[in-house]
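Researcher: I'd like a structural prediction for the single chain below. Treat it as a standalone chain; there are no partners to consider.
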Amino acid sequence: MRVEFAEGTEDLGLPFSYPPNENFLDLRENPHAVDRIAAARQYMPLRNFLTAVNDAESLFATVGAATKCDSPAAAPRDVSHEFASETSLVFAESALNFERERFAEIRSGLSELLGREKGDTVRAVIRISVCDFPARAKRGYCLVIRLVAQGDSAQQAELRWGLGLARVQQALLFRARTLKGHAVK
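Model: Treating it as a single chain, here is the predicted structure.
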């Protein structure tokens, strides 16, 4: 898997005030709310990813997820089809969201783990973005992961994306265990 870093240029205003507004579903607080996300109902890999990353034992919480399937006309010339998703993550422990170095650790660890896989039909673009946390009246950070898979058909691109997303999930949860281990010591 090819891994790229991108610096966040836009600010993301996060709806991290409680109760959440109608555009934000707190999947940590209400795991069954994943059923209200159309893309999670349609794509099982996204549903599994959101469920695992927002689990009560996870260090993370998602604050947004989207998918996109490009037809042959929209995809690059040498690729028939692309399937992509983008997910924004924050730490469930809100104090960590103001420490950019924590996000840099996660990004570096993800790059190391995901970069071990050969091939370039799946690409992960990992970005640390600045975002607002209105509930704390502070500006902090989030990690945005864009995953793009290419294939000769729409089905092949979607399958590669699903496998790539499962790999991103495994890498995130592995890095989380490593961070928890360092916090205990």
